Amino acid sequence: MRARIWSPGGLTERVKKLRDQYFSFENRPTNEVIAYTTGAPWDEVFSYHDWGVVPEMFPFLPAIRDSLKVLAMKVDLPEGFWKESLPVRRAIFFRRVIEEHLPVRILDGELIVGFHFNTALSKCFTKEEAEEWRRAEERWFRRVVELSDLGVMNCGAIPGHIIPNYRKVVERGFRGIRDELLQWMERHTDEAKRDYVRAMVIAVEAVKRFAERYAEEAERLAASEEDEVRRAELLEIARICRKVPWEPAETFWEALQSLWFAHMLVMAAESYPGPGLSYGRLDQYLYAYYKKDVDEGRLTREFAKELLCCFWIKHDYAYDYMGKIGNQGINSGFGQLITIGGMNKDGSDAVNELTWLILEVAYEMNMLEPKLNVRVHKNISRSFLLKMCEVLARTQGSPFLINFDEPSMRGLMWEGIPEDEVWDYACVGCLENTLQGKDRSGTVDVNINLAKSLELVFGRGRDLKTGKMIGVKTKDPRKFKSYEEFEEAYFAHLKKCIEVTLSLASEADAIRARWEPVPYLSALVDGCAEKGIDVRQGGAIYNFITVEGVGLATVADSLAAVKKLVFEEREVSMEELVEAIKRNFEGFDELQRRLLFKAPKFGNDDDYVDEIARKVSRFWTQEVFKHVSPATGRRFRGGYLSWNYFIDFAPKTAATPDGRPRGKFLSNGVQPVQGMDRKGPTAVIRSVGKLGLETAPNGASLVITLNPSSVRDEEHLEKLAALLLACCDLGVTNLQVNMLSPEVLREAQRKPEEYRNLLVRVTGYNAYFVTLGREQQEEIIARTCHGL
Amino acid sequence: MKRGIVFSIQRFSTEDGPGIRTTVFMKGCPLRCIWCQNPEGLNPRPELVWYDVRCIGVRACIKACKVGALRLDEDGLHIDRSRCTACGACVKACPTGALEIIGTEYDVKSLVDEVLRDMVFYKTSRGGVTFSGGEPMLQSSFLAEVLPVLKDHGVHVALDTSGFAPWREFEKILGWIDLVLYDLKLMDVAKHIEFTGVDPTLIWENAVNLAKRGVRMWIRTPIIPGITDSEENVRAITRFIIDNLPTVERFELLAFNNLCISKYKRLGMKFLLEKARLMKREEMENLVRVAREEGFGNVMWSGMVERDVR
Asked: Fewer Cβ neighbours under 10 Å: the N or C end of chain B?
């Protein structure tokens, strides 16, 4: 039974070649960004706010903007272009580019085509528009840089991070979408809205010609192709490209080709290389095509797998965007995410043969993109769950993330999504919960440093390094009579930081909404056509901007240390603590250790500190939910992404009362502070469960690391499966499971204090790694290298 | 209200019975197996230990000690165990957690509360709580109060025992035990006395009695090179199981490991097997084969073996 649904027979020669080609430095085509301009001297092709959450790139943004402008190719404009509205201009420009300019390229052997999609498209501004936009953008950017440098936040209006209604593209074709738009225009008289919907029609119609260019290229290649098999393939590719994505797909191959064209053109239209642009539940909406082809004898499982592999590797070329404009600081993946598994509307399990096949492809391809997220719920197929656990156990880095349906759905209902829709949610980027095809939740638009407000308590509102006023004026902490006063001051600063942050996020949202409509994407998001407004103006049915909180456990541990050691046990005086924080613990070694090792720590299922963590989490997430971005009506919602801001904010945040010196990383996602969880994965899961994460509907990142020996055979894989199922009950929304690696153990040898929690297990034997003698440590490391 | 003394509570325990378990290690043991992996479980009283990697040498502990049991020199902290009363004053004074009292007293409620924390995991995994040690039977009266409460909560309870306790102690708790993990170490009486310090006759009698009472059992044998690893020993244990213990469901061979050296050092004890070799994979596989040939099917091995040199 299992052999039939799981047959990791390895990759075919074709796929291996495509993979090798991707990884080779020579003979490899690159999908570098190509800029296109109207030729107007005031033209712009690059927005700072697209990159507002990548602070390490800030110093380079002006240079990138200017060099893209210099390198931009001029696009001939049709007559009357400048008389059109901005959305229509942008639609015409997009159409010109993809119909005539964007290079067409088919790689040797590939079955899914569509190569160049990294663009920097003209903003199509008139001179006046350009000036106004530039003023707004620069004013906003100055302020963001200032607050980012102070470690308060970063924010932008980030493209991608959405699941377009790809199902609709596959099932009805762009023709069907266009026809709906035309019907809408017949029914409506509002001129401005009709004009906007016309822009959508123009953008959507361009897809037909774009795909035909690929058909022509395939025919050209077929004419000179000597290999008969390949010639036949090329002719089939040509046939398919003349059909989809304009017409509905009828076969599995057509559906994949249709999807890829639709997807790559979103990246082209947004001039953004794909972070967070996600597919939703691919195994669900492609299953009918797969099943029909297989049942009717047109498709074997092997060929379906090969097609999927060809589809898979296309996504990795998104990284070529970096070639020309330098490192973006994005080094761990763009997050074009595919969601599989999950439940049906009635709560029954949705795993099908395609779910298995996609997991197999992800496992064997082992590429950075696309990423995979598996939805797990209480009724998930037992055999699939066990296979998933086996894949986790046998690979070093986690090949996929897991989202837990019950807690994730609770969060979405909390933010107002109707109960009969949440079952069909899917994830964006890594773990961010949204609906499919009708939801813009801006999942990385805003990142706030929750730990900064601790510093502000000690600085009485001021940044300790620069003296700049950030928070509100609060009492001298040495005069606090109780822990409650300390906590109150913390929340007062946090509230102020939230207000400042959200006003800047709203500003970015407003700039983008006013100046940068993207009609092509809007046509793929339900609600935009009906409302006659762009997805960037709040056109989607569900509109949110997600604020990701950074440093939750650092804050909880800090507050717990103050409460316990200063106010309850009086082991530490506030005078001393204030001095120690201001001097970054220099000369306060003993005090620092007391804070580090004598106070309760989040992640140990200790109610004392877990309750503080819950209070903080619920405070800030409910606070942001009160706010709405005025320009678009998008409501702010909370979440805990695991991005690298725990690094970026670290040097910008003063020492914290949990014993952390300036510069040491903040906690990540809802993760305990590095090394502070000492009671194993069940305790961590319970601590996180106590947060009440429904108020963070985006979802929250948690990573656990297991010993290879604890998942060594089927009996133990069952235990891992049970651990995952418990997450559904306990309210964890997302989990990544890693296996303990030799690298981690080496790091633990170097920094034993940060790895006091590291438990090594050799079947029946357990010990904290750092308390072992050197010889035994070496032995464990050597064993871990061999997977034990 | 009775109190028990526990030296460790380990959650997400995956080696002490079915499912995800919490293992409660009870302090105190009548045996002195020379391969003992948990020397901190031998002494029934709390003991002070010092972790060199955590110490920063501020001597707060020495100032705090009222009986003068502590001394710090270049070799580290010396604990005069004849004076130390494990009062915990030094532990409280130490800013870094370098000192620890091993052995915590629990009353029934606090222990029950603690082990119920992972109830959700027991349910999804069909796991539960295992009482191990040390020798948990030394604290059977305490267990007799804890176990009924756990059973009221529907918790699966396993007992991991050496079997060395008067039968009446087993009688006190048998009604609440779902599974016994039972050690059979050596079938040669003289060797058993030599390497564990006790006569095995009582252990064997108790095993037979447990089986007669219909208690489900897993037999566990530590495979110690040169001591318990002979084919003859494994065959004899298997024979004993087949002939006397019809309720045994599985037979686990646990390969010796030497990772406990640092624990011995911290307790000021000597580990006699410090230089002993590890078992080889083939040897373990061979012993599994021996047991199967003898007629018991469900045999498995785990633990540390010599690394394959590649």
From this structure: C
Q: How confident is the model at residue B258 (pLDDT cuts 50, 70, 90)?
A: confident
* CA-based nearest distance A589→chain B, Å: 9
Set A306, A364, A415, A432: catalytic member: A432
- Which two tokens mark A83? 């008389």
**Minimal C-alpha gap between B235 and chain A (Å):** 23
Q: Enter the ipTM.
A: 0.95
Measured distance CA(A177)–CA(A173) in Å, rounded? 7
pLDDT digits (tens, 9 = 90+) for A302-357: 999 999 999 999 998 887 776 544 444 444 467 899 999 999 999 999 999 999 99
Contact A723 B121 (CB under 8 A): yes
- Asked if B181 and B220 count as a contact pair (C-beta separation under 8 A), the reply is yes
Position of tokens 């990697």? B53
Residue found by looking up tokens 């070496």 in the block: A778
CB A23 within 8 A of CB A320: no
The alpha-carbon gap from B51 to the nearest alpha carbon of chain A, in Å, equals 7
Residue A430 annotated as catalytic: yes
Backbone angles phi, psi at B290, to 5 degrees: -55, -45
pLDDT per residue as tens digits for the range B155-178: 999 999 999 999 999 999 999 999
Of B20, B259, B310, the CB nearest to A776: B259
Q: Contacts of residue A780 in chain B, CB cutoff 8 Å? A: 259
DSSP state of A541: S
Q: What is the tens place of the pLDDT at every residue in A180-196? A: 999 999 999 999 999 99
Which tokens belong to B180?
């016994």
- Closest residue by Cα to residue B5 from B85, B116, B88, B111: B111
The Cα-based distances of A217 to A110, A120, A632 in angstroms read 13, 24, 42
Domain B47-102 class?
Answer: alpha beta
Q: What does the CA dihedral B57, B63, B69, B70 come to, rounded to 10 degrees?
A: 10
What torsion do the CA atoms of A653, A443, A728, A617 make, to the nearest 10 degrees? 40
State the pTM of this model: 0.94
d(CA A527, CA A71) in angstroms, rounded, equals 37
> In chain A, which among 673-712 make CB contacts under 8 A with chain B?
679-683, 686, 710, 712
Domain boundaries, given as residue ranges, for chain B:
3-43+105-309, 47-102
CB contact under 8 A, A765 and B260: yes
Contact B210, B247 (CB under 8 A): yes
Best of A389, A588, A682 to substitute, by most chain B Cβ atoms within 10 angstroms, is A682
In angstroms, the CA A542 to CA A531 distance is 12
Per the structure block, which two tokens stand in for A193?
A: 């809205």
**Residues contacting residue A441 through CB under 8 Å, at least 6 positions apart:** A161, A162, A428, A432, A434, A542, A543, A544, A545, A546, A637, A698
Chain A, 495-524: which have a CB under 8 Å from a chain B CB?
A: none
Based on the residue annotation, tell me whether A455 is a catalytic residue of this protein.
no
Question: Nearest CB to A772: which of B117, B126, B262?
Answer: B262
φ/ψ of B76, rounded to 5, equals 120, -165
**Is B125 part of the contact surface with chain A (CB cutoff 8 Å)?**
yes
- B257 versus A279: the higher-pLDDT residue is A279
CA distance B189 to chain A (A): 26
